[in-house]
Amino acid sequence: MNQQTLAYQADGLEMRGQLFFEPAAATRAAVRVFPEAFGLGENALRHAKQLAEAGYVALACDLHGDGRFIDDLPEALALVQPLFDDPKRTRARAVAATEALAARPEVDPSRMAAIGFCFNMLLELARSGADLKAAVGFHTCLGTKAQPIEPGTIKGRVLVCIGADDPIISVEQRADFEAEMRRVKADWSMEIYGGTVHSFTSPDADRRGMPDTIRYSPVAAARSRASMLALFPTTLAERTDAAGPGTVGSDRSASIR
Question: Does the model's pTM come out above 0.85?
Fold first, then answer.
């Protein structure tokens, strides 16, 4: 497998993502992997590598510039707060990663998806009107401070996977997100995992000693990954007009015990 540093500029920063792909003669579908608030760490890198092993070109995207990972939680939250407050900055970083990935010779730019963890860069990219075939969020924050978007702005299918007991993503935030998706007539779905809190995809979450807030769940991690991998073959098919199953505005919620 090839792994390369992909450098690009965004929001006044020098960004350094990590690109993964298997050698192949033809261009193929590509996936951006947006990291947690800590920045470009092992969770995003691991998912990008797994996606490359599945046949996609995958870019683990930078968040803080220079490929930094901020291990201290208060410091990481302080860095992302201005981005929460100004979604245009979040979108600028996401769009720059998109453009850098689309320019790669290995990539078919008409077949691009994105996934994201915790920080809401993924959903802000979708709200920007980017040509996303699919957007999959894992314990991703759902809210936005941007101006309301118009119906039709979100182009691809949206799947968010959320812990039912996540204290960071409240029931009210989920309800507001559902109302937004209905209003803009997005093709969206939500999976709710019972007995699950924030950061359920990250094996490193438990070392922070905050089990009521962030905790790894191998069951929820495996089920959300399976849902992602089931979505991609239809949305990223070689024929760009391929239609995936499902009804616009459907709510595919599930409680996992």
Answer: yes
pLDDT the model gives residue 250: 34
pLDDT of residue 228: 97
- What is the DSSP pairing of strand 28-34 with strand 157-163? unpaired
Query: How deeply is 227 buried, as exposed, middle or buried, from its count of CB atoms within 10 A (0-12, 13-18, 19+)?
Result: middle
Q: Which two tokens stand for residue 101?
A: 């990935």
H or E segment to which residue 32 belongs:
strand 28-34
In what helix (H) or strand (E) does residue 182 lie, and over which residues does it extend?
helix 171-183
User: What's the pLDDT score for residue 239?
Assistant: 56
Give me the pLDDT at residue 69, please: 97
Distance CA 22, CA 142 (A): 33
Q: What is the pLDDT of residue 237?
A: 87
Distance CA 132, CA 223 (A): 23
Spatial distance between the Cα atoms of 35 and 94, rounded to a whole number of angstroms: 11
Please give the span between the terminal C-alpha atoms of the chain, in angstroms, as a whole number.
37
| Cα–Cα distance measured from residue 158 to residue 136, given in angstroms and rounded to the nearest whole number | 6
**Which tokens go with 11?**
């929001």
- Given 3-state DSSP classes, what are the helix, strand and coil percentages for the chain, each rounded to the nearest 5? 35, 25, 40
Measured torsion, CA atoms of residues 176, 87, 158, 203, in degrees rounded to the nearest 10: -100
For residues 127 and 146, what is the distance between their CA atoms, to the nearest angstrom? 9
The owner of tokens 């860095």 is 79
**SS3 label, residue 80:** helix
| Eight-class DSSP state of 130 | -
Sites in the chain below the pLDDT cut of 50? 240-257
Q: How far apart are CA 42 and CA 228, in angstroms?
A: 19
